[in-house]
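Appendix B, Record 12. Input sequence as logged:
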Amino acid sequence: MTALIRLPAGFADRDFVLASYLELFVIEGELTVNQQRHGIDGYAFLPAGYQFDSLSSPGGAIVLVFLD
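Logged structural output:
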């Protein structure tokens, strides 16, 4: 699946495990994955089984998401 998602300012989620891989590409704003910041053009590949401690976007973001 491929999706373009808009995360509102103040978005926060935590404590979950991925059932399949997830790729994130930040188009606008900033996304923080387990304390690692990804700004514009930021990319992250997260394998199945990846443990999220935190996922947040204090100022909001537009993110292109690819997942299986």
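The chain has one domain: 2-67.
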